Amino acid sequence: MLAFTPDEVAAIARQPRPWAEPSERVCPACGSTSIRFYLQGSMRNDHQILFSYVWCSRCRRYHGSTGPVPDGLVFEDPLASDALEWGAKGDTFFARLDDAWGRGVLPQRFTSIPR
């Protein structure tokens, strides 16, 4: 898998946030409507953080980031019990996420959306 370029990441960021429209997006690298996302919450130093993964299921590019959970965002993590770990196996990680999309487990459902 290849990382998205900074320009491609910027193009993805201009599209609606996953909680605003939980569906696939247009990939700036290949033009296919195959950008997928997965959000994973975690606690670190008594603060909740958000791991955000974005990838194209067609051209296999990806981007990951970590930051604070936006105020008001509440979501389910249907994969929380699956012990997904990035580790050194990025292809396997995204293959598991693609499988979850194929089974209808992803995209995630958002119960509270930031304004």
Class inferred from helices and paired strands: alpha+beta
The separation of the N and C termini measures: 34 Å
Q: Report the major sheet.
A: 5 strands, mixed
What fraction, in percent, of the residue positions are helical?
A: 10-25%
Quote the average pLDDT.
88
Number of strands: 7
Shape: globular
**Helix and strand sequence:** EHEEEEEHE
Which regions contain 5 or more consecutive residues with pLDDT less than 50?
none
Strand percentage, roughly? 25-35%
* Gyration radius over CA: 14 Å
Q: What is the total number of structural domains?
A: 1
> How are strands sequenced across the largest beta sheet?
1-5-4-3-2
Helical segment count: 2
